[in-house]
Amino acid sequence: MGDVVDSKDAYNWSVSKIAQAFGMDRRTVAKRLQESGVVPAGSRRGNATYALADVGPVLYQEKQATAGGLDLDQFPDARKAWYQSENERLKFEKEIKQLIPAHEFARELSSLAKSVAAGLDSLPDALERDAGLDPDAIERVQDVIDALREQMYQAVVADKEDGEDG
Q: Listing from the earlier edge strand, what are the strands of the sheet with 47-51?
């Protein structure tokens, strides 16, 4: 049977219950509480409980660039080292083909689109010749292909416009 909890303790939860309610790992919750210095509001069955009013802001506050409580913005060398490490990571990912340049991606995507367009262009002829479809059916196929090509074009134009804004 469930425990009867005093109303003042209703919003004091254990680390496990907080983690479950917020959809986080228990270790993450415990670490953030410890790093932020949140003091337990009480205990239940030997486990510390924390006031939700104290916990919420700590779990979702924006992380500061800190190391041991120090602001990394005060140390330009640390920022420089971080950016250099990121540049090296990107170079490595390019080298092992996990990351490709945008122009290479665009070229490959263009090649794919041309192949699809060529296949769509030849489809009505193939259906007429090989499947023996009547002219009305071929005309319907051509209408569907034209609509599909127009959809593809509109998607490309919309993506291009989104890329220019962002």
A: 12-14, 47-51, 42-44
Backbone angles phi, psi at 61, to 5 degrees: -75, 150
Low-confidence ranges of the chain (pLDDT < 70): 1-9, 62-74, 162-166
pLDDT the model gives residue 69 = 56
Can you tell me the distance from the alpha carbon of 27 to that of 57, in angstroms, rounded to the nearest whole number?
17
Report d(CA 108, CA 102) in Å as an integer: 10
Can you say whether the dihedral through the CA atoms of 161, 162, 164, 165 is positive or negative?
A: positive
Q: Say if CB 12 and CB 50 are below 8 A apart.
A: yes
CB atoms within 10 A of CB 29: 24
> Helix, strand, coil % (nearest 5) of the chain?
70, 10, 20
Q: What is the pLDDT of residues 27-39, one digit of tens each?
A: 888 888 888 888 8
C-alpha 161/C-alpha 40 separation (Å) is 52
pLDDT confidence of residue 166:
47
Give the pairing type, strands 66-67 and 12-14: unpaired
- Angstrom distance (rounded) from CA 67 to CA 164: 37
Residue type, 44: R
